[in-house]
Amino acid sequence: MDKWEEQFLRELVELDTNSDEKKNYAVCAEVIKKYCEEAGLEVEIFDSMHDGIPQPNVVATMDVGAKTTVLLCTHYDVVPAGDTEDWKKPPFKLTIEKGKAYGRGASDNKGNIVAAVSSAKKLIKKGTSKVNWKILISPNEEIGGEWGIDYLMNGPPKTRGDFGIVVDSGPEYVSTGASGVISGTITVRGSQGHAGYPFKFANAIHLSIPLMQVMLDYVDIRRKVESKLPAPPGSPHQTLWGRFSMTVYNAGSKTNTIPGKAEISFDCRTVPEEKIDDVVKDIEEFFEKAKEETGVEASIEFKTKHAGWGSDPENKYVKAFHEAVKDAVDPDIIISADLGGNDGYYFTSHGIPTVCYGTLRDDNNYHGLDEFMHLEDFEKVKKVLIHFAEVCD
Questions:
Q1: d(C-alpha 219, C-alpha 273), whole Å
Q2: In which domain, by residue range, is 186 found?
Q3: C-alpha distances in angstroms, 158 versus 46, 57, 152?
Q4: Are residues 185 and 169 in the same domain?
Q5: Average pLDDT of adjacent 10-residue blocks, the chain of 393 residues
Q6: Which residue, 31, 113, 268, 364, has most beta carbons within 10 Å?
Q7: CA-CA distance, 252 to 61, in Å (whole number)?
């Protein structure tokens, strides 16, 4: 990583652009614009402005007059850092140490933004690219992409290209698909009152326990759903599979008060072959049966419904990218699909063949404490992107 790249990444990491608060988005877009222009890219900003909050999407173009245009998908929003006191390295300060760059978003996905822009900078300087690039740098990826890549593809900008690269995956394989994501919250209703008189009130925490116990059976049901797409190396299954997890529990306010409400948030991962609406209906039906079985008063609300996707590994662009990775990094690199979800769906829904490749190695702690990026992987991603642009025709 050279000084220009390091300073670019430093300025990005120092901005807390978490997807809950959505602050610093406009400032971050201006930082990205500055570095993209320094790289020689033409820059446009499309602000989707949702609920009065600026949500600028940066489109940085490298136009070499080629017949083929490649869309590179990245994002600058990050998940919240959580309790920053638990971090050994400060989350919003770039720390480079022993071949690693630490900080929230260093790997997911600000390091990939820098890798994509730096690759374009080198291609422009060399004048060797055989394809045009549009680097799409958006917010909203961590919560579904509606005001990010979705806005660029389906909103007024109507961005289009011949091939898509989601620079938001791992370097160990070339991904040709990703899981879908359905999230939501189950609310259990009881009655609030004084804890000295528990016999007078319905404790929502106590009521929620048998309901959650029944909902755990849905974990086994989802586990039996299998995809035809291969799972990443090291997975417990050979192909992608369905998953269901209860991930957040909120109830109560004081020790001497019986809680009248408990909220259980969940995350369901679908395989690319499934239709999101069918899985939502299945969750609803299982939930209704769980309510009936336990006699608990509860409701369910869905927050995210994000479809999975897959591309044909025999597509000419997919094959060319796979060959470029094998040439530039490792001749044994395989094709797989991602357990996580990403914005590739917004490309494939328009018939644009798509792959994923990036710095998100399993040990990076992205979404966790002390997130970091291997500088070696950063160089790999740059090398792959540059090589593909120079050999793709």
A1: 19
A2: 180-306
A3: 11, 13, 6
A4: no
A5: 97 96 96 98 95 94 97 96 92 96 96 98 97 96 86 94 96 95 97 97 98 97 96 93 97 97 98 96 98 97 93 95 96 94 92 96 92 97 97 86
A6: 113
A7: 51
For residues 9 and 151, membership in a common domain is answered with yes
Please answer whether residues 112 and 168 qualify as being in contact, where contact means their C-beta atoms are separated by less than 8 angstroms.
yes
Total domains present in the chain: 2
Q: How far is CA 136 from the centre of its chain?
A: 14
> Is residue 7 located within the same domain as residue 126?
yes
Structure tokens given for 210: 């048998």
Q: Could you tell me if 151 and 17 lie in one domain? A: yes
Q: Phi-psi bin for 145: left (phi > 0), alpha (psi -120 to 50), beta?
A: left
pTM over 0.85? The answer is: yes
Q: What tokens does 166 get?
A: 């989601």
Is the distance from CB of 138 to CB of 76 less than 8 angstroms?
A: yes
Say which residue the tokens 């192909």 belong to: 239
Query: Which residues make beta-bridge pairs with 75?
Result: 138
CATH number where 229 lies: 3.30.70.360
Do residue 262 and residue 115 come from a single domain? Answer: no
Tokens of 98: 């022993």
- pLDDT score for 205: 98
For the purposes of burial, counting CB atoms within 10 Å of the CB of 54, is it exposed (0-12), middle (13-18) or buried (19 or more)? middle
Q: Are residues 32 and 170 in the same domain?
A: yes
Length of the chain: 393
The confidence score (pLDDT) of residue 51 equals: 85
Q: Could you tell me whether strands 239-241 and 226-230 are parallel, antiparallel, or unpaired per DSSP bridges?
A: antiparallel
Q: Are residues 169 and 188 in the same domain?
A: no
Cα 108 to Cα 88: distance, rounded to the nearest angstrom: 18
Beta strands 372-374 and 56-62 are unpaired
Tokens at 138, concatenated: 């958006």
Distance CA 103, CA 298 (A): 39
Q: How far apart are CA 140 and CA 214, in angstroms?
A: 33
**H or E stretch including 189?**
strand 180-189
